[in-house]
Structure of Beta-lactamase-related domain-containing protein:
Amino acid sequence: MNIVSSRQIYERLIPHVDSGELPGFCAVVSNNGHTVVASGGYSDLELKKTMDAESLFRLASLTKPLTAVLTLQAVEMGDITLDTELAELVPELANPRVLTNPRARFQTTLDSTGNPRYEVETEALKRPITVYDLLTMTSGYGFWVGTSLAAAYKTANINFGIQHHYSRADFIRLIGQMPLCFQPGDGWAYNWSVEVLGVALQRATGIPMETLMEERIRRPLGLKNLSYTMNSLAHATSMYKASPSGPVLLDPREGDYSREPKYYSARTGLVTTAPEYLRILDDLSSEDPILLSPESAELMRTPALNEHQLKNKFFEPNANFGMFVQVADGTGVLPEGSYGWSGISGVKAYSDPHTGTSFGLFTQMSTITTRPQPWFNDFWHLLFD
């Protein structure tokens, strides 16, 4: 990895702000206690508020690796094992049906009570779903993009912002009526294994998700900002989406993340600063982590998917998947063994356990777009070319 200064990072990324494509950024590189931070642009375009190291970002799916940490902590504490069956903890989800064809075509409607209704060929589970299946997203919960099952989730309003619309009981009721995409262990499907695991984890520990995050991640590392809400509007960022005319406001500072959700999600919803998130990755990559044993930290970042399971991945082509983290195979720009993830809100963070270096680029530009977002690759190439 190249040794870079704050000025070098700034000069590489600020052209994207000057062009009007990117509202702002905060980039962090941390190595053995030495941290370089570079920020530029605005945290709020409308107010022209300057981005800085204290700006608060929506973590979106960068919440997921923290749920993996909490789960492995529970394993270490004896609350669960990787082989614990989901049905033991969440009996409401004990007998899901499974699509015989993940790409089967069918229509979904809602009945008068809001429950999904559909007709499609399904079969019974061939084996129980385990905690390990959920941790590796091979449980069968979720869908493959562009399928009727994906449309069924949308019709049932099981969506990325579900925590602002439903209670946890509502989620269990709805997900319990959806067929699995495939038999446990027979594929990989993003997102919803995490939320189901969150339900199981809270029942195994008897502790709510928000309290687990507070007591087992925030406090041990002395983090000030990790929270499920923007705890300071003065440092809050607004979120944008791309358009031909430039960034368009998607969620203002005082929007969804300024109020408490109806339930605290295991897969999304956390907020913090870029430097604080890198402190979490720094700890997980250290020789003597605070959050996990070295063995558990290594297990979390160990590639878990076989060739069959990798067929329907949608993450980077030069990577495998561990426990809610992508793991680079070394054939792309990121070093082999580097692990991390990204969030739909425009944030990406990784760590290289071989060098103890963590690096992340946090923006507030949604990654749901067909327009290119070259700032991420510009940052990676600055570090690794």
Observations:
- The chain has two domains: 6-62+220-283+315-384, 68-205.
